[in-house]
Amino acid sequence: MRLLAEGLSARRGEDLIFNDISFSLGEGEALVVTGPNGSGKSTLLRVLAGLLQAESGRLRIEEGPAEFDHPRELSHYLGHRNAMKRELTVRENLSFWQRFMGDSPGGFGVDIAAAAGAVGLAGITHLPFGYLSAGQQRRMAMAKLLVAHRPIWLLDEPTAALDAGADRLFAGLVTGHLERGGIVIAATHQPLGLGSTQGLQMKGFTL
Amino acid sequence: MIALFLRDLKLSVRAGGGAMIGVLFFMTVVAVVPFGVGPDLNLLSRIGPAMLWIGALLASLLGLDRLFQAEREDGSLDLLLMQETPLLMTVFVKCAAHWAATGLPLVIASPLLGLFMNMNELAIGATMLTLLAGTPAITLIGAVGAAVAVALPRGGLLVSILVLPLAVPVLIFGVSAVYAAIEDPAPFLPPFMILMAITLFFAVIGPVAAAAALRHSAD
What we know:
The structure holds two protein chains of two kinds. Chain A is of the alpha/beta class. Chain A is 28% helix and 25% strand. In chain A, the strands form two sheets. In chain A, strands 5-6-7-3-8 form a five-stranded parallel beta sheet, with helices on both faces. A three-stranded antiparallel beta sheet of chain A has the order 2-1-4, covered by helices on one side. In chain A, β1 and β2 (15-25) form a beta hairpin. Chain B is an all-alpha fold. Helix content of chain B is 83%, strand content 0%. Chain B has nine helices and no strands. Chain B has helices spanning 2-13, 19-37, 41-62, 66-73, 76-82, 87-116, 121-148, 156-182, 189-217. In chain B, α6 (87-116) packs antiparallel against α7, α6 crosses α9 (189-217) and α8 packs antiparallel against α9. The longest helix of chain B is centred in the middle third of the chain and has 30 residues, at 87-116. Chain A binds chain B through residues 12, 46, 49-52, 68, 72-73, 75, 77, 79-88, 92, 95-97, 99-102, and chain B through 1-4, 6-7, 10-11, 14-17, 73-76, 78-79, 81-85, 218-219.
């Protein structure tokens, strides 16, 4: 399976945020998007997630599963917000997303205890999500990537609010996903500690 | 889909959920009416059904603006929009859960409040039945307003104002069906059938319109 972007450009209001971005990612490949604040990293990821209409260009999947409309259906999106409910327990949150999302063809999500263990927080899944610290909340949001299988991970500043140990742990999760033939696109300021990756430097438009 | 329904139901009864607020508001509005109108029992029983309906309409509008806004604030809306599940199914299930958490308690509370208004058994039964048939329409209409105002920080009042004109027919036919049931010459069925038709109509239109609004609200 390959994810191809051809000549993507996006606009917010009147302003063109980026123009003519193309890349091609195969199984086990990662793309790290870097650039200063406001250069359009988040916008690019939201376009890839189908949450924002691209101004021009095309996004498609080659040699992938047959039935889907848009690559977003094969993607996990981890944005700035964690998409977890503070009032529900961690277990309820994760099991909701597991059941609601379901697995994409070609893989299976792990169960909730295993996902919590993988982010180093086994044993606190009975607590309401709102009780956790910011870093723990972020880790649990990452556990969401594991409970339902998606071949493509779109990560927007994944390691903000995390300590160094969690950084390494997260790099391990991403590496594991790549080894299983996944595709990762991450926007970040910090190095994620990944091995071989493609890079995309967003410069932004200077006025 | 069942997972979404159960999650929304749980959220509405946990701390900060809106389920009880609607019922409390409904009870407050209706309980205050006899004090304002005075102890004229005939008058109370005559205006009772209309008061119950107005109270129920306002109470169901109360929590509607949070329907999608709460999802947007914590980022869940992004994930709901990305799934393979058709968005209009997601919207419909969210409406169903919202109605079960806020509309159904109003229907259940209405007989008690009917007693406050000196209504007889027939009037109470007819009010309950029409509320049961009519309140889903209010939720479904409200979902469109909530979807349009999802990105506005204080969309609450705006949602009510957007939704109210569309909800007025529900009120008119709901109340007229109750009066038709208690006053002899008028037939009960025609207004009741129209009420049900309105609900069914918005069960189709509401989710489609709300889904379209949500798709275009993304930023």
